[in-house]
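user: can you give me the structure for this one chain? tokens are fine.
assistant: on it. calling the predictor now.
[tool input]
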Amino acid sequence: MDMLADIFTEPDPIDSDTLANLGPLRRLAGIWEGQRGIDVNPKADGPERKNYYERIVMQPIDPQTNGPQLFYGLRYHVHINTREEEITFHDQVGYWLWEPATKLILQTLAIPRGQIAIAAGHAEPDATKLILKAERGQTDYGICSTTFLEQAFRTDAYRIEVDFNSDGTWSYVSDVTLQVKGRDAPFQHIDRNKLTKIAEADLNPWAKLVRDKQKTAG
């Protein structure tokens, strides 16, 4: 991005209603479930294929600023299980962020095995497909892992593709390039699923405050 001369002054005014300013991310807001997930991951004796189901909660946060940079976003939690086990198969938290001025989309992610990442892409407000990427070694949109993961299952790249379907569902394919210790060829760790909305999103806290003040004044 081009660095502005004034890096301190925040936008004024700022619309308090996050749901009205999410651009293409508006279609992700809400609570979702998917029953037919497929995971392909590396094991000692070769790739393992797992079927999974998941629940994703995406709720709007208040607008966020970095000086003049303005983001609207969703805080999310992904919880995944398999039919074979009751314990958690995968847990992930983070944010989906939209910068209206530049059409930048970010996904931050953190998983409780010692790994974080920021993936980036661009899309129009009415886009029906999102593609975001992160690469190991980058200092802006990169990947950071524990020493063990770096040495045993090094993540070199992350790519997520989201498709918004005409029936209101959405689908994703997550593609993680791993370098597994002792193996020459990279391994493509793939996850895919289709999500159906089971509940609408709440208003963000600031928008709720504005709504409540308007009700009191009325």
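assistant: here you go. DSSP finds two helices and twelve strands in the chain. The CA atoms of residues 116 and 144 lie 5 Å apart.
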